[in-house]
Amino acid sequence: MNGDLRLANGLAIHDGRVLLVASTYRSHAQPLWNLPGGRVAPGELLRDAVVREVREETGLRAAVSELAYLSESYDGTRHVLSATFAVDVSGSIESPQHGDHVVAVEWVPVDRLAERIAIAVVRDPLLHYLRDRTRYFGYADAGVTIVWPDET
Question: Scanning 32, 77, 81, 121, which has its CA 20 to 30 A from the CA of 10?
Answer without folding.
Answer: 77
